[in-house]
Amino acid sequence: MKREQWGSRSGFILSAVGSAIGLGNIWRFPYMAYDNGGGAFLIPYFFALLTAGIPILILEFGIGHKMKGSAPLAFARINKKWEWLGWWQLAISFVISIYYVVIIAWAFNYIWFSLFQSWGAETITFFTENFLGLTASPSEFAGFRMPIVGTVFIVWAINFLVLFSGVKKGIELSNKIFMPILILLLLVLLIRSVSLPGAAQGLELLFKPDFSRILDARVWVAAYGQIFFSLSIAFGIMICYSSYLPEKSDIVNNAFITGFVNCGFSLLSGITVFGIIGFMMHQSGGALPAKLSGVFLAFATLPEAVNQLPVMQTVVGVLFFLSLVCAGMSSEISISETVVSGIMDKFSLSRKKVVTGYCLVAGLLSLVFTTGSGLLILDIVDHFINNFNIVFAGLIEVILLGWFFSLRTVKDHMHPISDFNVGVWWNFCIKVLTPIVLGVTAVQNLIGDIRTPYGDYSLAALATLGWGVWGAAIGLSLILSTVKWKQPV
Amino acid sequence: MTTGAVLMMIFGLSLTWGGAGVCIAIAIRKRDI
């Protein structure tokens, strides 16, 4: 079967950027910067971008393009014994695609709520009780939340249509629509945000440098973590996307563009979010809002800010949640495509069959997150996916490719076709620096969770939804790697 | 805003969007994008 291809270089870059830019850029980066030294955080952050983010992007683009396959096929072509790592990365993508879709669905609902400011004065209560119907524990489902089920269906339908239409007419086209809209929405929101009274106070919080924090090792680990999570690396996406590049396509420069644009977007999001937070502080006489990151920033704090706006309340609300939908959709499409591509490669099945089956199965599983305990389940699964699955999969990837595979092979493949070359710094970053930082992060996460179990959840919930999902992902990967390929590897 | 905060904001925006601009310019010069 002939491999599909991108229609243009800009289409590939927009899709890669669309995958990297996600909800985390909007609701995670601003708080990370604020909490880790303000403006001073930018120094370790950019250091991490140049020494881990972009080097791994180059590596994944190079491997995907050279091996012409999804993560399992690419790893199997390097070494048959490494195929399981590709499946593990696909399993991570599969799990993320199931719950990520639900957050996009919430944003869809909130576009509607923005029209009437349906959340009222108590935005946290509205979000947790009226909207989510949040229960006390992950095992207490309390039935489906029908408005969320409805929008989850809509998000899966969009995802299905895009994936079904293929790489060029589906994924590339959708990103050529989503990304310009997203940038435009962000710019409008940014202008509105910085023109609000008190915005400068918020920007001061975000950018005022506390250089003493640079000596704190935890700030560096946080910076590497933020870069690592925000660039869609180590879960097979970039390997899959670059496998669709035509033969003579740039690799190195594309990775630099993707990395820089992703981080530039994070900064603009930070300015927008903290401009609004500054406005809220101005309104309340200096009090910082209670929730500054994650789902509560988006679905409780931002609606509260909308309530306080003097004019354009509806417009700002709609634009903000629409930007969440655009950022989320472009990432969700890439995550789903990674899994679809892997299954197509392994079993030589048509795109139409795999996409249909995938959307049905994953769509049904998504329904778990539309129940009253959906947010609690999502919180546990997301914590373990980020802190263990992605970090460990990334660590194993850089160790295997850095030490047990010739990086020279990748360079020899990339250099003749790229706009510019990479030097020995790249080998050093992949072989030494990134494994050390990821190794420290992995051990730190492991010890942290063993000493203090995550959240206030029961051990049974953590064992099944956290450690259990981790174990199941690895087990399934090992099983799939033993299944015979329908095509020659 | 203090000077330090303004400088760090300019530093961040210049490095990211400036870096992206330079790379895109190279891409345009070398081949079609």
Question: Quick gist of this model?
Answer:
The complex is a heterodimer of chains A (489) and B (33). With 489 residues, chain A is mainly alpha-helical. Chain A is built from 20 helices and no strands.
Structural commentary:
The complex is a heterodimer of chains A (489) and B (33). Chain A has 489 residues and is mainly alpha-helical. Chain A is 75% helix and 0% strand. Chain A has helices at residues 9-20, 23-27, 29-35, 42-67, 71-78, 83-116, 123-131, 146-164, 166-194, 199-207, 217-230, 237-242, 252-284, 294-308, 313-347, 351-366, 374-403, 407-414, 424-451, 459-482. In chain A, helix 1 (9-20) packs across helix 9 (166-194) and helix 9 runs parallel beside helix 13. By secondary structure, chain B is an all-alpha fold. In chain B, 85% of the residues lie in helices and 0% in strands. Chain B has one helix spanning 3-30. Chain B is rod-shaped, with a radius of gyration of 14 Å. The mean pLDDT of chain B is 93. Chain A binds chain B through residues 8-10, 13, 38-40, 42, 46, 200, 203-204, 206-209, 250, 253-254, 256-257, 260-261, 263-264, 267, 271, 419-420, and chain B through 1-2, 4-9, 11-13, 15-17, 19-20, 23-24, 26-27, 30-33.
- Helical segment tally of chain B? 1
Mind summarizing the main beta sheet of chain A? Answer: none
Alpha plus pi helix count of chain A? 20
The gyration radius over C-alpha positions of chain A equals 22 Å
Structural class assignment of chain B: mainly alpha
**Global Rg of chain B:** 14 Å
Helix proportion of residues of chain B, in percent?
over 70%
Tell me about the largest β-sheet of chain B. none
Mean pLDDT of chain A: 96
Distance between the termini of chain B: 39 Å
Shape of chain A: globular
| Unreliable parts of chain A | none
The best one-word shape of chain B is rod-shaped
Low-confidence stretches of chain B: none
What would you call the quaternary organization? heterodimer
Number of strands of chain B: 0
* N-to-C series of helices and strands of chain A: HHHHHHHHHHHHHHHHHHHH
User: What is the strand content of chain B?
Assistant: under 5%
| Class by SSE composition of chain A | mainly alpha
